[in-house]
Amino acid sequence: MMNGVVRRRIHVTAISSDNVVGLLRRLELYDDVVKGKITCFICKTIVTLENIGGVTVVGGKAILVCGNPGCIARAAVLSKERQHVTGSDEDR
Ligand SMILES: [Zn+2]
């Protein structure tokens, strides 16, 4: 009998809703998300616990994006680029 769990693989960090609450609490962003004070870094949609797509930390600052695949992909690229140029605000 097959009892394997098939998971979709996506190249960005996927977060479960359980994880995200813990992570947001740690980053002290949970209250702000619940209050609708956080917007998607890419498209400026208000990020809620329902539509949150990802959390990434760039230069010590937490960035949240909505569940839009385009936003998640861009956030992943951004976090990689920024980590590469630590200490620099501008990348040219
Ligand atoms: Zn977005």
Please, could you describe this protein's structure?
With 92 residues, the protein is of the alpha+beta class. The protein has one domain (17-91). The protein has helices at 17-26, 30-34, 69-84, and strands at 52-58, 61-66. The protein is globular, with a radius of gyration of 15 Å. The termini are far apart. Zinc ion (ZN) is lined by residues 40, 42-43, 45, 65-66, 68, 71. Zinc ion binds next to strand 2.
Find the structural class using helix and strand composition. Answer: alpha+beta
Q: List each distinct ligand once.
A: zinc ion
Based on Cα principal axes, name the global outline: globular
Question: What portion of residues belong to β-strands?
Answer: 5-15%
Rg is: 15 Å
Give the biggest beta sheet: 2 strands, antiparallel
Number of helices: 3
H-E order = HHEEH
- Total number of strands: 2
Cα distance spanning the termini: 55 Å
Mean of all residue-level pLDDT scores: 78
Helix content: 25-40%
Low-pLDDT ranges: 85-92
Query: What is the count of distinct domains?
Result: 1
Instruction: Strand order, main sheet: write it out.
Output: 1-2
